[in-house]
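pls ignore typos typing on phone
magnesium ion + seq
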Amino acid sequence: MQASGLEASLVVGGALGGIAIAFLCARLRRFGSATAAAANHFRAAIEQAPQGVLIADATTLRILSANRAAQRSSGYSLRELRGLRVPQLLTDDTQDPDALVAKLRAADARSLISMRQRCKDGSLLDVDVAANHVTSDAREVLAITMSDVTLRRKIESQLLEKQQHLDHLAHHDQLTGLPNRHYLAAHLPEAIADARRTGSSLAVLFLDLDRFKHINDSRGHEVGDQLLKTVAQRIRSTVRTEDVVVRMGGDEFIVVLKNVKTPKLVNDTAVRINEALAAPVVVDGRPLVTTVSIGVSLYPRDGTDMGELLRRSDTAMYQAKDRGRNNFQLFSPVMDHKLKERIAVEASLRAAIEQQQLDVHYQPIIDIESHRVMGLEALLRWKHPMHGFVAPGRFIRVAEETGLIVPIGEFVLDRVMQDAATWRQMGWSLVPVAVNISAVQLQRSDLPGTIRKLLHRHGLKPGMLQVELTESAVFEHREARSGESSEDAISKLRQLGVRIAIDDFGTGYSSLSYLKRWRVDFVKIDRSFVRDLVTDMSDLAIVGAIIAMARHLNIQVIAEGIEGWQQLEKLRQLHCDQAQGFLFSKPLPAAQCRRFLSEVPLDLTEDELFQSLDATGSYGR
Ligand code: C2E
Ligand code: MG
Ligand code: MG
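k done
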């Protein structure tokens, strides 16, 4: 490297020397009047100069004389050179002899012209040429010096190539070959400036693959990489050449659509991307299905600089995730508000964990025939220092999205077992406790391992615990064909002796065949079907059908949200097994569960009934 640098500087020095010699040639005339000896020295200097020197007729450009270096580098003898015209020896990129002649005639000794020297053997040398008009013996001649810069050019072009390669690496993603975030940081402000100048619109699409992390974790990084490559190609193929597709990192991509004349273009592109990704990607002979959530912001409507446009497309993307993924959403200012609220909830939820503001309440589950308490459902409560009790509906989702549900879930399990151990110590009769488990806990933590450890720590048997999973926790991942981890966790829980309930049944996939396959113990009919059971014939039909089929599969049915005696009576007639609702009790703190933990059937007085109905929608006491 050092040697070639040195060579390069010598060659550069040589080229500058070419200008010096051209100057010398220009002064030849003045030396003509000097002494003959001085003129001889001068001729010898030119004859032996390291640069090629040609003297040509200024009109015809026929070569009249050439020094040794010119003969050596061209491979022609002096006689042969004298038979040539300059354009036969020198050429330039234009390959146009007339243009070359014009250039030479216009040249002066102070500037260098990049040319090629044609050698006798057909090879070409890169030369820097200086030309100067000289009058000698009353004849106008052209003194031309040629410095061989082939090596320098080669080094320069290698350096340029290296630089371009480095630039490419710095601005492109190695895995997919797409431009990366650095490219976007340089390009998007330019595109925005163009749009401002031309008064046009542009769209920024923020794409995030749905459940990519799960695929990566369960199928391995190589499969994940393969999937990303295919996804990148498919996205690229759906947009126009002038549009930019960038991989931001992980499973996030940005598409910049330029010159957006109508919203239809954005709409059509987003639909095309969703469709392009819908076909399964086959990796290692196994199909993978991935979908994408897309958020869109528009210049100038939603923002006028890069940061704002990216932030808002990101916000819209989260909205798309919230809306069940595999769709796209245009940014709207309402989203910003929601985002702020979510960020606030997240921050105070973190504080809630640290400051022990979380608690667990219990609601009894009753046998419909005997009114005996068959179990308790543990329900999370957040006692906020300023807002009072915050309903789980307002924070479970944020907890899931941020992963906070994992420590929160462990807190709930630990608290439930602690309470059960205390009840046992007090001599109360224990019933199984059902704990709600989110899909995120199933995927991101070793739930069976955690439960085993906690049961051991509190000296409890697995039979005291039931887990409630929503249908989506179990089924969505089967849809993605990569749901082994949820399935594995469920079967490990079963092996451990923990019983499984499917929560909110009827609101999702409602596939009874899967229930059988996983040998689910309970289904809990969602409150929305129970609410109007007495008046709505179709709800009655649905609930009746669920109970009949579940009984056939030997699965027990629990109805949620019983608030009135008539509902309870209808469920009894339909042979529903168990019921849960304010009719029996609101969820209560552990210390007030004495009544639930005795062999005595739970009976309600008129007074209690009135109280329970009155308390709808409120928490605790
Ligand atoms: P879920 O598991 O379906 O729980 C039943 C919900 O219905 C509870 O709401 C309960 O208070 C309410 N409920 C019970 N009986 C009645 C009734 O007669 N009328 C009415 N209107 N409501 C009744 P809650 O406690 O607000 O919980 C809401 C959801 O939050 C739960 O639905 C569950 O999906 C989730 N959740 C609660 N605790 C946890 C937890 O520890 N972990 C996780 N992952 N999710 C939890
Ligand atoms: Mg539940
Ligand atoms: Mg439920």
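Residues 363, 379-380, 391-393, 396, 405, 409, 412, 436-438, 468, 503-504, 527, 560-563, 580-582, 587, 616 surround C2E (ligand 1) (CB under 6 Å). Residues 2-26 form the longest helix (25 residues). more later
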